Amino acid sequence: MDYRDSTDESAFRERLRGWLSEHAAEFPTSGDEYWARQGEWHQALYEAGFFGLSWPAKFGGHDLAPVYDVILDEEIARAGAPPRPSLGYLLHGLGRHASPELQERFLPGMIDGTERWCQGFSEPGAGSDLASLRTTATREGDDYVINGHKIWTSYSDVADWCLLLARTDPEAPRHRGISAFIISMKQEGIEQRPLKMMSGITTEFGQVLFEGARVPADQMVGAPGEGWPLAMTVVGHEREPSTLGYVARYGKLVRQLAKRSDEYSEEIAWAAVQTEMLRLHVRRRLSEQLDGVSHTSEGSLDKLLMTWVDQSVGHAAVSVGGTKDPELLSAYLYSRAQSVMGGTSQIQKNIIASRLLGLGV
Description:
By secondary structure, this protein is an alpha+beta fold.
């Protein structure tokens, strides 16, 4: 396979590299300050023509091939710039399941960064087993009234809108009684509770309590009871490494660790092997996307690979820096979360066994 840039891709890479050299240093790359200014970074990328590259032009994107997103991620990592805001899974969910009216209303603001979003899926008792969620949506006139408790909700404290899953039919089988809504986060009846992580970050995740919050019925995505297919679309794209842009960062960190280590390190060597494996896997996935191949349950395999690589790199980082280097310690601590966020590794293995290998059928 030929991974070299085409003429157009090379020109795009050079233009992006020049812009990053002038502007990347203006934005923090980690910690609470990064999360506080992520919206500014999003809009800066968009205004320069570097965000929404593979998304529909009619909503403000550029309709470019997915390879341009990979170039963006590679150059961002190379420049030491903040990560690209991750919204593709929400856009895919709304792009596939929302009505044209909802798409025209909400996708432009999502893409250009003028409206911030969060995802209201997980609950204290419904994480990987999402179908057991208990948040309710009860019809009252032209609105639904929302009551429940969401957790691990990224950006919830700054979000304008939330793509929310709630149970509209408690009598239906649990996968079929769930509906999806676009709900305003700027209203009474919503309480924010930030979650402090062991890495010290306090604003990345939050708990959200809904008590009598309201959402217009015409902001339901799809029909009543059709929330589960949307959820599967969202988590499927969320689990694909080709859309997350982590691979270049893993590779850069491993190279930095190798330079800092004075002797052979088995942890660094294994992290290098794992990182290269994931890089090639992502390239294969990208090639499949360009050929029109879509993935469903294969996203669980991607998620497992991401977890293994992240944690291999994390172990290598702590083997070099111990607990005295805050940045390397943070890389290790955050890598532990990969086994849980986006669906636990145990659940991903069950999905692979049942849906890909046909075991237990």
